[in-house]
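Job type: complex structure
Entries:
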Amino acid sequence: MINRNEPADRKIPLHISQKLDASTYFQEIIKEGARLSLIPSETLEKLQSQILTLLSAAFNRYTGGFSSSVPLETGQRIQQSIFFTTGYYLKRLSSPEEAFILLETCTLDELYQKGKKRIAEDFLNTKALLASIQKKLPSFDVLAYNDTLKEGIPLFFAAYDADYGAHEIPGSIDYPLSNDPMILTGLEYIMDYLRKFQLENLFCSYYPSETVLALIRGSDPMYREQLFNIFDLVLANSLASALMGRSALNLYISDYDQRFLQYELGSQSRDQIELLADQAGCRMCVELSIAGTNLEHYIRASIRKLKGRLWHAVHTDSLPLLFPSSKDEDELNTILFRDKDHMDHAVLRALYNEILSCRHLSDKLILLRNAPLSMRDLTDLLDSECFFEDEYASLFSSLNEVELALLLKTLPHSADLPSLYGRAAIRDEYEKLRQWHLPFLSYLDGLELKDRNRIEAFSERLEISQVL
Amino acid sequence: MNGYFSLIPAAVAEKIAVTEIIQCNRLTSRFGLVLKESDAAELAKTRSDALEAMGRIEFSGGVINKIITAFCDSPYLNQSSYAETLNALVEAFYHFKNETLDEMDDDELIDIMKKSFDQTCRGSVDLLMTRDLENLSRRIRFGITDLSNLTSDLSGIFEEDGECGKEDEAFTDWDIIFDFWEEELF
């Protein structure tokens, strides 16, 4: 009970955060209310029996009245859903104090029904928000980004169960946000995710999409299938630009810039680096005219995370990973190779036996060229050693440039060394090698430099689809 | 379990259950079966223990009442073993509710339990649990809709069993195999 003798301006400290998920918020309201005697004991007892009634009614609806008991997991799920729905309504009141008043004056069922109504409204609003985001979705060629927005989140709206699973998040969300503590649940999480996603897109829209794409390409050659946040990438380079006194609208950071920043920041303490990053962040917000907006708050929260990464990158001399250089489309336009359907195992085995039984190399090559082999089948045949060592040169010369580039792509690679030299470096690691690998490298060595470079460059651009 | 449902007063739920069980005496006394308050409390406790052990939750004493009402006219129940049998039946009910994957309604399961108890098990709860209800849950898990004759197990019920049997029979006939070898191989 509130002590009426206390001065009116003295506030009791409440430990209830608005950041809690709705289900926990409801439980915390009751716990804190009981702890600070803000909910009278008779109201607490009334609440307990009302919860019991509400749960019984929900279980009855769930089982259709045919079963009086349910597995614990189902019970927990329904209970969480009820707490979530009630908490969802209470959380959206102007203050927790108002929630205490409502808990005294209304029945729990009334609050639950109001929560359901609110969820139904927000469900439609969130669906509309998704539609508006989808309409303006920039064409970044990143799988997780596109799949989450076009397929994963729409699944949520198809499968969301507001009656018994209001706190659940069906659907598939792969694309990571810059600031996602993942505390919220249910519809609240999706709403929050989409709002943040919209803010991130808004920030990226300050930059030409070609510039952002070039930066994405520069961050990782396999960027299409990687899980990374585009906003973080743009923000980092924009901040780096501001750190060097340039316009925050510039995203291009050269090798020289990276070295210069390493030199400039290398001698600074962690606090100084963080202060410089904050100042650069302020300049960026002023330049983009976003001071005081939600976007500024979001950027500031992301910069708080980025500061730690910046200090770590300076400390470990790895700034190029944090501030990657942009790569133009022409410079590295990867080609996605999708392999043909694999040959049936029995047919491939028959072909292998047939090749093995051939007396002349020319017959072997005819068999090989006439079979509808996928690249996987070709490498399988090569791995299975149905050619002799002196036959490899003729075999490779019968392959075209694309096939040679694909074979080169499948070779084990020494990560520290680029391209062909990297592959040559593995020559000593016999355990990784197949019989045809060394003849293949020797064959490439024997080609004219111009041809070899072309195959090598082609191989670099190739990206083999997961099917292979 | 208590952690998840800490806002629900377990004592209140148990008290309601005891009252409901005692009310059943009005019906069962006709058959010479009466539960004392201590028996009812024990039954309510058996229910909560069984629920906890089976990982289930319930919000009324409804099932105990249904079991009492269904079993009270059984010729195999008498006052001396009434409370003990009821405890075992309540435990069995929740166990097989899980084992039958919640596919059966409360009433359906109680009905089958009663029929087996009175007919094939002749009042033996042990036999009911270890044979009939085990066979019932196996049938439900395998998606078999024929729930009659729960005294027999599932052997021979699948088509594959029959085919395997035929194959075994064919290959034990060694003369046929030798003939086949002679014809095909030599």
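Summary: The first strand of chain A starts at residue 69 and ends at 71. Chain A has four domains: 22-118, 122-204, 212-322, 337-464.
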